[in-house]
Amino acid sequence: MATVTVSHKACTVNPLKMSQPIGGALAFLGLAQCMPMLHGSQGCTAFGLVLFVRHFRESIPLQTTAMNEVATVLGGLDNIGNAILNIQKRANPRIIGICSTGVTETKGDDVDGYLKSFQAAHPELDDLAVVYVSTPDFQDAFQDGWSKAVRNMVDALVEPTAARVAGQVNFLLGSHLTVADIEELREMAAAFGLHATFLPDLSGSLDGHIPDDFSPNTLGGAGLDEIRTMGEAELTIAIGEQMRPAAEALARKTGQPYILLERLTGLEPNDQLLDCLAQLSDAPVPEKYRRQRSQLMDAMLDGHFYFGGKRIAIGAEPDLLWTLATWLTEMGAVVATAVTTTQSPLLEQMACQEVVIGDLEDLEARATDCDLLITHSHGRQAAEHLGIPFLRMGLPIFDRLGATHRLTVGYRGTRDLLFEVGNLLMANTHEHHPESWPLPGGDHARSQIAVG
To answer: Where is the Nitrogenase/oxidoreductase component domain (predicted)?
Structure first.
């Protein structure tokens, strides 16, 4: 059991945390033919746009209601309506996802009520789905914004039904999963003959492909028609604690059962996933996954020498922190320092003494005797100051290529991550030489050997 501590410094130094609206906007980017929009100033949107472009290295569709000082004070509901009409005229999306910001939340506009009256006054927009999520950036963090956005997608888009389609399964995906992770889950479901729907699906929209034609909206992802029929699935599999609210919302709306897997990095959680898919499909686990499991076990045997007793410092969103810390502990490492961004039921269950809700300065100050630092790219200076190896995980990663294609789930992803971390630890292991050998008699015995 860990003690959860909140840093109460006068200011944040080298932030670890990203805001709720950014998390919500990224979730909307996982929908097909969608235009995410931030209800706030142009600067808020520009910040998120730059962050996503640097991480994904792709063009990002992201719009704004362009709130100014007057609209912020008097109310900016008309800005929402004008923005929707302009977006529909210029981009013609099927979905518009709206995330609020601190500017508009402080005013307290009734956006839900306005959208109802606006849509009633514009019947020409009946085919346009509009999803609004309240994501004030003065509270909570990136993971919370993603979680709320997915829950509101379920509430607004999934159609209530009691029907069930054999072989259909839903995956609700946390913000810590990469494009490669989603593609691996898709392959797993297909290997059992299951038809899977993924929400959100960044593997379709932000996988780095070059499209045949230009589109002002997202280039792929979960389609609106597909989302509407999610209630017909036999089961929903939620990945990450952050997906519990969305899974519960889907269960309330359709009566559909769900299971929640807190992580998919490691041996046991993937055993659980494959067992679940095998029972759902009434099919045996394919031979290739049995082989991959054997390869992972061999890799664990090969690598545990280099993990044992190593002290690790991690700074990440709660679900990613839980995934990494739990897996590293299973490998024999010690999570000496854990820093995160927001509250989660998992934090108190962490296998470390303390979890700090703070920034990268808190991480650096507590990692002076650690063997490895893990966080996103903004932790590179801390690792350099400490003189220890650095593993980039999370978002943003802007000083390395291929962040979205790093695989960390499944037997294969766990094996690859094990090799990556193990090689970093191995490269930093100091080999013993004659002068470092512990001899009986200490320095006197060493001097006698030297004289002899």
So the answer is: 19-425
